[in-house]
Amino acid sequence: MSNLFEAIPFIENPLYERIISDISSQKYSIVDDFFSEEEVIALRHSLLLKDEEAAFKTSAIGNKTQELVKKTVRGDRIFWIDERVINVAEQMFFAKINDLKTYLNQTCFLGIQDKEFHYAMYPKGTFYKRHLDTFQNDDRRKLSLVCYLNSEDWQPENGGELVLYLDGKDEVIYPLPGKVVIFESQELEHEVKPVTTTRLSITGWFKTR
Ligand SMILES: O=C(O)CCC(=O)C(=O)O
Ligand SMILES: [Fe+2]
Q: pTM of whole model > 0.95?
């Protein structure tokens, strides 16, 4: 009978090792080119299609009072991704994300068993005020992952920087295409500065159950 533990070879991945070491030393990690230019283009296209569909469906409804309350804190539009019904670009996205998740579970004791991801679109003038990614009575979110899908010519004057509030110097991150930022959901307060141009991303969480 074969031994289960011998059946799965472990191959060290230098990128993932760097992410793990960054997170353990500073609670966050930034990878500039986690997704290639082609991958970003495909995911951006999927996001824009989702937004068109949603605009079409919801144009006639909506609780305006709730919307106003929400918009003083955050102004992005989000679309949750259901992994059971995904297109080719999203399959590629989850293949990479699941690979990282498996590696983290093999090497760290985070116990990530669940995940959730959504597209996000910040129209001109919107932002997300300083916050922590955990809800009251729910501490399952362990790591936050933000993947930027903006175009190659994104400029600093477009705004939309992600600011991570650290004990010492705050980290200001430009939402450049292909970049992925991973941070400890329960530890790091952060904010999305107002944008002057539509800002596109996928945000998600690795969670315990
Ligand atoms: O888009 C970002 O840079 C961060 C988004 C965020 O903080 C959130 O969705 O909770
Ligand atoms: Fe957040």
A: no
